[in-house]
Design a protein that fits this description.
Elements lengths: L25 E3 L9 E2 L1 H6 L12 E5 L1 H5 L6 E3 L6 H7 L1 H10 L1 H7 L6 H5 L9 H7 L4 E6 L8 E4 L2 E3 L3 E4 L4 H8 L1 H10 L1 E2 L6 E2 L2 H4 L14 H24 L6 H13 L5 H10 L1 H19 L5 H4 L6 H19 L8 H4 L9 E5 L2 E4 L4 H11 L18 E2 L4 H14 L6 H6 L1 E2 L14 H10 L3 E6 L2 E6 L1
Parallel strand pairs: 3-7, 13-14
Antiparallel strand pairs: 1-8, 2-4, 3-4, 5-6, 5-8, 9-10, 11-12, 15-16
Length: about 475
């Protein structure tokens, strides 16, 4: 067969493009950069959690990949996002002292490196607090999460009070219909074909830009009816509740990975071992299998592909179904060029309202509000409305002629943000350097260029820039 760009033979998932309908809904969780942020329930209580209601916004439940697939740690995390160091010290002095003693020294030790400079300056905040994710999840009672690298691709609801770790992908979707489609074998097989793998033959990696943003959800054009949508949502709720119930009843013997190991054995029709029989009995895995089978049938019906149900059952990946998804992706992309976008959350994704409270930069209690850089905001907004998308291989040509490098830090941040927002392609650090003239006092020196990495890291941490890594090459674009 034809060998595609991803070196696979079969359905050409590598040709699928990101859909606007799925954009701005998925993100990786926070990256702490400091073990001192994590606290046990007892440590949280000693800091005032449980006594002071205001502490609930600063100390939150925390989940990583092992918490979801293995034995939960039941830990919490300090989250001072939105507070300056002075505000944290004034409102929560015990929390401030813990971070001062357990996080700041670690950040300061790494502050001399290029990557650690930005983390050292904002030592009381998570290294990557994911401002964009917080905006996406704001106002939702729950969201969907999956573990980025896992043996089995599963999705589940997490309460909005839970802060996800960097190894989780958070989807700003509270509708059980979306959970159902993501949990179907159709999407699981798509994610296996479109995603990547950790090593050779090891666990699959869910790459959100390839697995989620390219995935065409069923809609009225494929045969989705209100009755089917309700059925998919009901089955998804049952699956989510079933797993959480049995795991809570048997916390020492059952894990999510264990449940799906047995589920795979049942699908393969092989005899269960003694241990697997115990898991089946405690976790009611045969019942879980019937729920998944009914969900798969309902999702296929929503796509109008009920004819492929018999072929897809019992197979890890069905080439015909993947080919149909590739074709549907192309059809949706063509639709979107005409202005027809099947938003998953139209009230959020298609909203043009802008928040006046978001902060772009925090430098030792010095803030630059987004309102104060209207030239950047307007440029960035116009770029987001463009229908075309750049690719990793797009030619990089920074603006010309080179502009003077600003003298003050606020102007430097503004200039870099405006440069990224106005560029049709992602830019490397060298490209950004070339877009500016060195100050007279710094000619022949790299001192002024050393400010670029911390500025880019801070813009990324606050959701205003995004790093794109291809091999050893890192480029930056406006988020």
């Amino acid at each position: 067969g034809e060998i595609h760009a991803d070196l696979n033979i079969g359905a050409n998932t590598a040709s699928a493009v990101s859909l606007q309908a799925n954009e701005n809904l998925s993100n990786r969780g926070v990256q702490l950069i400091g073990n001192g942020f994590i606290v046990t329930p007892e440590e949280a209580a000693s800091l005032g959690f449980g006594d002071d209601p205001a502490m609930e916004s600063v100390i939150r439940d925390y989940r990583n990949g092992r918490d979801l697939t293995g034995v939960p740690r039941n830990v919490k995390v300090i989250d001072a996002f939105g507070l300056s160091a002075d505000e944290l010290r004034t409102r929560h002095p015990a929390v401030f002292q813990r971070l001062l003693e357990r996080v700041k020294p670690e950040r300061d030790a790494k502050g001399t490196s290029k990557d650690g400079a930005g983390y050292a300056k904002l030592w009381w905040l998570h290294g990557k607090p994911r401002q964009e994710m917080r905006k996406q999840l704001s106002g939702l009672p729950r969201y969907v999460a999956t573990v980025e690298t896992a043996k089995h691709r599963t999705f589940q609801f997490l309460d909005a009070s839970i802060l996800p770790d960097n190894k989780l992908i958070a989807f700003a979707l509270a509708d059980a219909f979306h959970l159902g489609v993501l949990s179907s074998r159709l999407h699981v097989d798509w994610s296996l074909a479109a995603g990547s793998w950790l090593g050779v033959g090891n666990d699959p990696v869910y790459v959100k830009s390839r697995c989620f943003e390219t995935f065409p959800f069923p809609s009225e054009d494929t045969g989705l009816t209100p009755a089917l949508k309700s059925q998919i949502a009901a089955l998804a709720e049952q699956i989510d509740a079933h797993r959480k119930r049995v795991l809570a009843q048997h916390p020492r013997t059952l894990t999510l990975t264990g449940l799906y190991n047995v589920l795979e054995a049942l699908r393969e029709g092989r005899a269960l071992s003694v241990k697997e029989k115990t898991i089946n009995e405690q976790g009611l895995v045969s019942t879980l299998k019937t729920l998944h089978d009914e969900l798969d049938a309902a999702v296929l019906a929503a796509y109008g592909w009920g004819d492929a149900l018999r072929q897809a059952q019992g197979e890890r990946s069905d080439g015909e179904l993947l080919n149909r998804l590739v074709a549907l992706n192309a059809a949706r992309a063509a639709e979107e060029k005409t202005g027809v976008i099947r938003w998953l959350r139209p009230e959020f994704q298609n909203s043009h309202e802008k928040s006046s409270k978001q902060l772009l930069f925090n430098e030792q209690n010095f803030y630059i509000s987004r309102d104060s850089i209207s030239d950047f905001s307007s440029t960035n907004s116009s770029n987001k409305n463009k229908p075309t998308k750049t690719t990793k291989n797009a030619p990089v040509s920074p603006p010309a002629p080179a502009r003077p490098w600003p003298a003050s830090l606020p102007d430097q941040v503004r200039a870099v943000a405006q440069l990224l927002a106005g560029s049709p392609a992602s830019l490397s650090v060298r490209d950004i350097e070339g877009a500016f003239k060195a100050p007279e006092a710094a000619k022949g020196s790299r001192s002024w260029k050393n400010a670029l990495p911390p500025i880019l890291q801070t813009l990324e941490a606050l959701g205003r820039a995004r790093a794109e890594v291809a091999g050893t090459q890192t480029t930056w674009r406006s988020a």
